[in-house]
Amino acid sequence: MASFQNYIFPESLEDAYELLQANRRNAVIGGNGWLALGRQKLHTAIDLSRLGLGQIRVGPAYVEIGAMATLRQLERELPGSLLACCVKPIAGVQFRNLATVGGSLYSRFGFSDPVTALMAMDTTVLLHRQGDVPIVDFVWQKPSRDIVLGCRVENNGRRAAYQTLRLSATDLPVLTVAVSRLGSDWRVVVGARPGKAMLAEEASRLLSEGKADAGTAASAAAEELSFGSNMRGSGGYRRQIAQVLIARAIEQLHGEGGLAIC
Amino acid sequence: MLITTVLNGKSLRQEVPADKTLLDFLRENGCLSVKRGCGTENCGLCTVWVDGTPVLSCSYPLPRIDGHEVTTLEGVREEAAAFGAYMAGEGAEQCGYCSPGFIMTVLAMERELRNPAEEEINAYLAGCLCRCTGYSSQMRAIRKYLEKRHETD
Ligand SMILES: Cc1cc2nc3c(=O)[nH]c(=O)nc-3n(C[C@H](O)[C@H](O)[C@H](O)COP(=O)(O)OP(=O)(O)OC[C@H]3O[C@@H](n4cnc5c(N)ncnc54)[C@H](O)[C@@H]3O)c2cc1C
Ligand code: FES
Ligand code: FES
Q: Which of B3, B21, B59, B135 to probe the A interface (max A CBs under 10 A)?
């Protein structure tokens, strides 16, 4: 468990932000899912749970998800959606009732199911100081001491298929794949490579131009992306699996298949 | 810091260290049903309810329960005993160490899901590990318990 001396519920975002800048050992506490496993010696934990960031709002143009919304809230409030589908395999219900969307975004884990899925959609991460940042830029930029307010996903009819391989239920994924389509515009995203999720640009282009079937596009993606090894699998194994999962996701999106954002 | 909570129906006001786990707080306050099976958020043995929602007490930040209600197995004794009888009947309790967290999760599931299919039950309980039973007996106990509850509703 990370240790800290103080625990504060700031009354405004500005107070929270100032507190975060005041000391390098102050940290925002989301669901405490990841922090609880560390041995960090922190000074002050900054709790955002009283700032109204726990809501999911579905509007005609956007779905807005507050940073303190839990993974389980995605399942309950957006049933049948892409996000509900991608968080289901994460640990157990009791864990998903804790872990937050904000903590998942901020952590930018390579193995992240929600980051993979959100990257396949038209997603903007909302930050207190930096403002609105497209998710790909956010995930790949150097983490700054900012506060994630949540994310906004365009409710534009884009549909996606989600695929993941786990060695056993509730374990971290060996690979995550999200493929999305809006009309003829395709996007292929692969995460848990085990590095951070990446857009397979060549494969996405081939699909969008109608120049590749599922198998060809999947091979192109496996070819252009890099894969590494860790205790869950080798890079070579991941490359093989990627082709299978990507092809499956593409097949699911032909016709009316796939999942929407809400 | 000073926190005010309702633990199993009783108001409690206590000075606590900022980084204590909810799990330790509960055990120190007499709720010995709450077990630390792993301490790494994998086993579900530490499951309790905060405002009726099942959470892992090994990682739930203790100061956040200020103003909220916590329920452990000690707070739902009758229901737990009723379901426990089905578990015993099916041989689903071997060493029993995992039972409190498991029962709290099953009772939460019963409140949350209407007539769950086996697949939904498995998904809901995937975060509850048991080293002894192999889960089949637990599934039988749940099925019989839910059927009985359904009949008497
Ligand atoms: C046992 C276990 C298994 C897991 N399995 C999976 C899995 O299979 N797939 C998957 O995708 N994920 C998995 N995760 C990750 C999990 O889903 C969450 O992403 C993770 O717990 C972080 O979210 P949190 O709310 O718990 O954040 P915390 O632990 O509270 O915080 C994590 C980091 O983010 C910072 N932070 C939190 N909120 C904000 C904010 N709003 N603004 C700025 N900074 C913030 C904190 O300061 C800290 O540095 C797993 C985690 C654990 C512990
Ligand atoms: S002790 Fe909390 S999940 Fe194992
Ligand atoms: S009965 Fe022994 S761990 Fe479940």
A: B59
